[in-house]
Amino acid sequence: MNTSEVIRNRHSIRKYKKGVQIPRKDIETMLEAAMFAPSACNTRPWEFVVIENEDIRKKIMEISSHTKMLQTASLAIVVCARPDLQEGKCAEFYPQDCGAAIQNLLLQAAELGYGTCWCGFYPVMERVEKLQDLLKVSSLPLAVIAVGEADEEPKTRGFFDKERVTYL
């Protein structure tokens, strides 16, 4: 599959085939793609928590009702920001930088044949703080990515809208 096909065929998946084990090499390939994302001054202000444990995934679902797909997902990848790694002219770009890392991860997962769903946590600080406590991290959990083998085929929702483009 080429890049254009992956972009156009990637969907948010909320139903997964339960019990599918994702090989460690595939997880590392997804994380490697995430870490190849551009970042302000190449600060790479991210860290990742891979959650295969079902009990921890259940606790995440208690923190946010928007993560119910974790009931059947194979795992969750929590993308955490490290604003402490950015200063000066590069300070405070971590949301954009982590967003680029997340997009790379989603596209790599799709290319490997997995479904994903990006569940935002930041900037809702109540959720962020509860997830920090659960994961025992001082970094900022920005998003939880559900990953697994899709058990649904949602319709494509994205499209090109010429009305949202200005040429100067």
From TrEMBL:
| InterPro entries tied to this protein | Nitroreductase, Nitroreductase-like
SUPFAM superfamilies cross-referenced by the UniProt entry? FMN-dependent nitroreductase-like (SSF55469)
Keyword annotations for this protein?
Flavoprotein, FMN, Oxidoreductase
Q: Which cofactor does it need?
A: FMN
Q: Which GO terms describe its molecular function?
A: oxidoreductase activity
| Presence of keyword Transit peptide | no
Alphabetical list of Pfam families matching this protein: Nitroreductase (PF00881)
According to the entry, every stretch annotated as the Nitroreductase domain falls at 7-63, 69-148
Xref: CDD domains? nitroreductase
The record's similarity note reads:
Belongs to the nitroreductase family.
The molecule here is called: Nitroreductase family protein
